[in-house]
C-alpha cells in the first residue's frame, strides 16, 4: 500500500474526477470567468445608479469605485498567498473568497449610499485576489507539468470570456430588468461557481486515498501504485528533466533547481507544496528578487497590464472623433474586435507545452508590435478593426506563457510556492492596470496626437519585453540556445 493512504474510512464519491486536473481546470476557469463577469457587468450601469441616488460628478465617483476594487485586490493579495501556502490550503480559501464575492454583490446591489458602494467594491477586490492567487496555485498543484501551459491557457479563456461578454450583457439586463438585473445574473453565476468549488477535491486529500492527479493515466487521476510500480521499461529517472537525471546519476543536488532532487514532485510524499516548510514573507520576496527569471516574468506582467489597459479610456473617444461612432456602436464594435481574445490563451497555452515558454512569449509579443503601429493609421474603419483584433490576439497571447513561466519559477526555487508567485503576478499586473488607464487618459487629453502616442508607447514597452524575454525566459532561454548553436558551429 502506498504511504499515507487512508484505511477504514469512507471513500469520497467521484474521487477520480473530482480531483482530476481537467476538473480543476474547469473550476478555475469558471472562477476566473465569474470574477471578471461580476467585475465588468456593473460598469455600464453604475453611473445611472449614482445619478438615481442624487450624486453629481458621476464619472469621478465611478473612477474611485474602480480604485476601491484595485485597492482591496492589491492589499489582500500577499496575505491570501501566505495563508494558502502556510496551511497548504486551497479549497477553503477559495470557498471563503467566493462567499465574500456573493456578499459584496448583495451589499452593492442594496447600497443606499456611495460609501457603502465603496466598501462593497473593496470586499469584491479581496475576494478576487483569492481566485487569482489560490485558484491558479490549486490548478498548478494538480496539472501534470508537461501540459501546464495548455491547462492554464484554457482556464484563462475565462478572462477573455468575461471581458467580452459582461459589459454588453450588463447593459441589456439593466435596460430590461433595472439596476438589480445584472446583480441577480452575477449571483446566479456565483452560485454555480460555489457548487463547483464545494465538489472539488484538493491534491493532498486525493493523495491520502492513493490518487495522484498529476500522474496521467487512462483514468481521470493516476494512482500511487502507478508511481511506485512503473511499467516495464519505465524508470523514475525517465520522467525527470535532463539536468535532474544527470545529477541523480552523479548523486548530487542540482544547483540550478535550488533544492534536493527527487523531493518536489514525488507522488509518495505529495507535491512540492506539501513537503516544504513555509517561508516568511521576507524570505519569499528575497528569493524572488534574486531570481532574474522571476523578475523578468513580473516586469513583463506589469507591462502587459499597462499596455492592455492604457488604450481603454482613449479607444471610445478615438473611434468617435475619427469615424463619428456613437457610444452604442463603439460598444458593439469593441465586442466584435475582442472575440479573438477568446482563442489566444488556449492556443498559446498548447504551444507552450510543445515548444516552451521562451518561444511562445517572445513570438507572441513580437508579432503584436507591428499591429500596435497599424492601429494608428487613419484609414478605413475596416483596416482599424482587423489590425486591432490582431493586436488584441497576439498581445493577450502572452498571458499563457507568463503563467506557465511563473509556475516553472515556483518549481525551481526552494520554498517558494505557486500561491507566492501568482501573488507577485497579481501585484505586478494590478499595478500595471491601475497606472495604465491613468497614463492613457492623460496622454490622450494632453498630447496633440494622443492615440498615436499611446500606441507607440505600447509598442515600445512590448519591444522591451521581447528584449528581456530573449535572455531570461524559459528553461533554456533563446539567447542560451543561440549561443549553443554558435559554439557548435565554431567547434566544427
UniProtKB/TrEMBL annotation:
<feature type="transmembrane region" description="Helical">
    <location>
        <begin position="63"/>
        <end position="83"/>
    </location>
</feature>
<dbReference type="Pfam" id="PF07690">
    <property type="entry name" value="MFS_1"/>
</dbReference>
<dbReference type="GO" id="GO:0022857">
    <property type="term" value="F:transmembrane transporter activity"/>
</dbReference>
<dbReference type="InterPro" id="IPR011701">
    <property type="entry name" value="MFS"/>
</dbReference>
<keyword id="KW-1133">Transmembrane helix</keyword>
<keyword id="KW-0813">Transport</keyword>
<feature type="domain" description="Major facilitator superfamily (MFS) profile">
    <location>
        <begin position="24"/>
        <end position="477"/>
    </location>
</feature>
<feature type="transmembrane region" description="Helical">
    <location>
        <begin position="21"/>
        <end position="43"/>
    </location>
</feature>
<feature type="transmembrane region" description="Helical">
    <location>
        <begin position="152"/>
        <end position="177"/>
    </location>
</feature>
<keyword id="KW-0812">Transmembrane</keyword>
<protein>
    <submittedName>
        <fullName>MFS general substrate transporter</fullName>
    </submittedName>
</protein>
<dbReference type="InterPro" id="IPR020846">
    <property type="entry name" value="MFS_dom"/>
</dbReference>
<feature type="region of interest" description="Disordered">
    <location>
        <begin position="217"/>
        <end position="271"/>
    </location>
</feature>
<feature type="transmembrane region" description="Helical">
    <location>
        <begin position="122"/>
        <end position="140"/>
    </location>
</feature>
<feature type="transmembrane region" description="Helical">
    <location>
        <begin position="330"/>
        <end position="352"/>
    </location>
</feature>
<keyword id="KW-0472">Membrane</keyword>
<feature type="transmembrane region" description="Helical">
    <location>
        <begin position="451"/>
        <end position="473"/>
    </location>
</feature>
<feature type="transmembrane region" description="Helical">
    <location>
        <begin position="95"/>
        <end position="116"/>
    </location>
</feature>
<dbReference type="InterPro" id="IPR050930">
    <property type="entry name" value="MFS_Vesicular_Transporter"/>
</dbReference>
<feature type="transmembrane region" description="Helical">
    <location>
        <begin position="416"/>
        <end position="439"/>
    </location>
</feature>
<dbReference type="InterPro" id="IPR036259">
    <property type="entry name" value="MFS_trans_sf"/>
</dbReference>
<feature type="compositionally biased region" description="Basic and acidic residues">
    <location>
        <begin position="247"/>
        <end position="257"/>
    </location>
</feature>
<feature type="transmembrane region" description="Helical">
    <location>
        <begin position="183"/>
        <end position="200"/>
    </location>
</feature>
<dbReference type="GO" id="GO:0016020">
    <property type="term" value="C:membrane"/>
</dbReference>
Amino acid at each position: 500500500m502506498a504511504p499515507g493512504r487512508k484505511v477504514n474510512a469512507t471513500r469520497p464519491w467521484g474521487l477520480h474526477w473530482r480531483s482530476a486536473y481537467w476538473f480543476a481546470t474547469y473550476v478555475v476557469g469558471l472562477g476566473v470567468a465569474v470574477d471578471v463577469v461580476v467585475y465588468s457587468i456593473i460598469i455600464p450601469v453604475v453611473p445611472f445608479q449614482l445619478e438615481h441616488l442624487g450624486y453629481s460628478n458621476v464619472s469621478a465617483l465611478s473612477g474611485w469605485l474602480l480604485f476601491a476594487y484595485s485597492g482591496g485586490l492589491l492589499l489582500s493579495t500577499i496575505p491570501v498567498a501566505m495563508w494558502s501556502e502556510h496551511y497548504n490550503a486551497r479549497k477553503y480559501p477559495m470557498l471563503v473568497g467566493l462567499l465574500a464575492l456573493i456578499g459584496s454583490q448583495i451589499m452593492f446591489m442594496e447600497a443606499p449610499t456611495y460609501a457603502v458602494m465603496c466598501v462593497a467594491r473593496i470586499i469584491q477586490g479581496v475576494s478576487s485576489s483569492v481566485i487569482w492567487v489560490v485558484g491558479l496555485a490549486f490548478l498548478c498543484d494538480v496539472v501534470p507539468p508537461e501540459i501546464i501551459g495548455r491547462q492554464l491557457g484554457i482556464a484563462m479563456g475565462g478572462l477573455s470570456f468575461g471581458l467580452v461578454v459582461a459589459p454588453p450583457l450588463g447593459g441589456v439586463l439593466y435596460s430590461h430588468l433595472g439596476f438589480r438585473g445584472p446583480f441577480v445574473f452575477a449571483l446566479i453565476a456565483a452560485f454555480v461557481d460555489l457548487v463547483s468549488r464545494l465538489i472539488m477535491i484538493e491534491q493532498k486529500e486525493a493523495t491520502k486515498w492513493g490518487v495522484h492527479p498529476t500522474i496521467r493515466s487512462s483514468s481521470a487521476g493516476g494512482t500511487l501504485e502507478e508511481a511506485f510500480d512503473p511499467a516495464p521499461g519505465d524508470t523514475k529517472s525517465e520522467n525527470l528533466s535532463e539536468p535532474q537525471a544527470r545529477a541523480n546519476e552523479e548523486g548530487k543536488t542540482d544547483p540550478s533547481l535550488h533544492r534536493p532532487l527527487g523531493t518536489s514532485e514525488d507522488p509518495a510524499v505529495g507535491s512540492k507544496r506539501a513537503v516544504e516548510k513555509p517561508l516568511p514573507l521576507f524570505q519569499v520576496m528575497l528569493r524572488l528578487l534574486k531570481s532574474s527569471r522571476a523578475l523578468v516574468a513580473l516586469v513583463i506582467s506589469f507591462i502587459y497590464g499597462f499596455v492592455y489597459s492604457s488604450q481603454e479610456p482613449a479607444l471610445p473617444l478615438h473611434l468617435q472623433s475619427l469615424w463619428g461612432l456613437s457610444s452604442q456602436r463603439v460598444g458593439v464594435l469593441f465586442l466584435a474586435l475582442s472575440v479573438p481574445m477568446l482563442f489566444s490563451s488556449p492556443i498559446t497555452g498548447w504551444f507552450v507545452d510543445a515548444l516552451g515558454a521562451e518561444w511562445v512569449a517572445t513570438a507572441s509579443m513580437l508579432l503584436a508590435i507591428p499591429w500596435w503601429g497599424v492601429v494608428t493609421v487613419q484609414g478605413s474603419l475596416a483596416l482599424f478593426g482587423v489590425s486591432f483584433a490582431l493586436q488584441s490576439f497576439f498581445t493577450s497571447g502572452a498571458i499563457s506563457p507568463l503563467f506557465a513561466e511563473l509556475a516553472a519559477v515556483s518549481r525551481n526555487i526552494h520554498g517558494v510556492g505557486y500561491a507566492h508567485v501568482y501573488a507577485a503576478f497579481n501585484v505586478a499586473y494590478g499595478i500595471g492596470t491601475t497606472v495604465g488607464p491613468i497614463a492613457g487618459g492623460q496622454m490622450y487629453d494632453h498630447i496633440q496626437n494622443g492615440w498615436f502616442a499611446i500606441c507607440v508607447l505600447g509598442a515600445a514597452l512590448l519591444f522591451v519585453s521581447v528584449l528581456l524575454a530573449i535572455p531570461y525566459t524559459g528553461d533554456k532561454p533563446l539567447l542560451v540556445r543561440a549561443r549553443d548553436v554558435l559554439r557548435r558551429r565554431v567547434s566544427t
